[in-house]
């Protein structure tokens, strides 16, 4: 191999007009090659706190230094045990220098994203991570979408449920929806259902998708709250539960319980480490109630944990949130307010997983927007996505209300009355992201300061 040889020619001049002379350097031959670095993990998958082995070799390098995951001077070839302290796709980079210059190379360790303790917290963390998303059209019909690390590669993926029947058209009442998993590739969502789910048959009318570790596997599972045929006589239907399996796939379980399940939220209520579920069911049972986790993929109905005041009320929205920073989850219930029958209410946890005390907090309404469809709780403030629930203009507008939990001071951050590009006039889900309240679906283009 020939290497470059640098030859310097000097020219001098004795005349003042020459300016004293100068020099020029000419390289003859090939330049020295830049360092070549090969770096990789023994296994691309890692776990928080566990050891993963990273190795690298170099050619044409005389010194190396660690960057982004590695620190300080490193040998030109090495073997290193790293223990990640965070989840996600973690990058480890090494930069090396030689006679031919400098080069850098990286290896990525895929540490699965943690499943948080409640479905609300899982949705909130995803929202803070990516904000608004361009979603498949099917989500705008069914409202059922959730995000978690379903593929266990340290990134967020998505699950959706189609709505394939026409409400009020009995001829379509057997057109059940389908469940889909999606991976993000080059900033686009790609349907990757076949890798995780062999039976993707869903319910007739899904309404909400929530993520929790229902079987204590360390991986995300998914519950679809479904309410069935959305017209009289409102017969209700069963919910679908996607339970994570040890081989990374999902089993599609139909829960043996019928109801008009318009909303659901999950968190451990009785302290056994397994998430329980609160559901709304104002058509079949006539009240919201709990499904207590039996720790084997089944649940037991429990109507004793909420007060009688919730009976036979038009309640359609539920969420489990630790509003008072007690380490226990409280219950938020929202519904139709225009008639004065129900107002958004927070029921505090009594410390034993019951919500029967008289200290329930009724939240102020927002004139003209009587139905809270979603809730965000951030820095002591409640943010409600609202729509119109009057019979003359049902779902005919959108608003975002801010309520200070301590003072109950209320303000309107956003109101909208004309149709969005999708044809709808209301928004389903909101999230907190980078100091703003945003619509989960970027189609609505909502981002207002908190």
Task: Write structural notes for this entry.
The chain has 450 residues and is mostly beta strands. The protein is 4% helix and 40% strand. It contains two helices and 32 strands. The chain has helices at residues 119-130, 137-142, and strands at 5-11, 22-28, 36-41, 52-59, 63-67, 73-74, 78-82, 88-98, 101-111, 145-148, 157-161, 179-185, 188-191, 206-212, 221-226, 240-244, 250-254, 263-267, 276-280, 289-293, 299-302, 315-321, 330-335, 345-347, 361-362, 371-378, 381-387, 398-404, 410-416, 430-433, 436-439, 447-449. The strands form nine sheets. The chain has a four-stranded antiparallel beta sheet, with no helix packed on it. The model has no long low-confidence stretch (mean pLDDT 93).
Which key features would you list for this structure?
32 strands; 40% strand; mainly beta; single chain; four-stranded antiparallel β-sheet; 450 residues
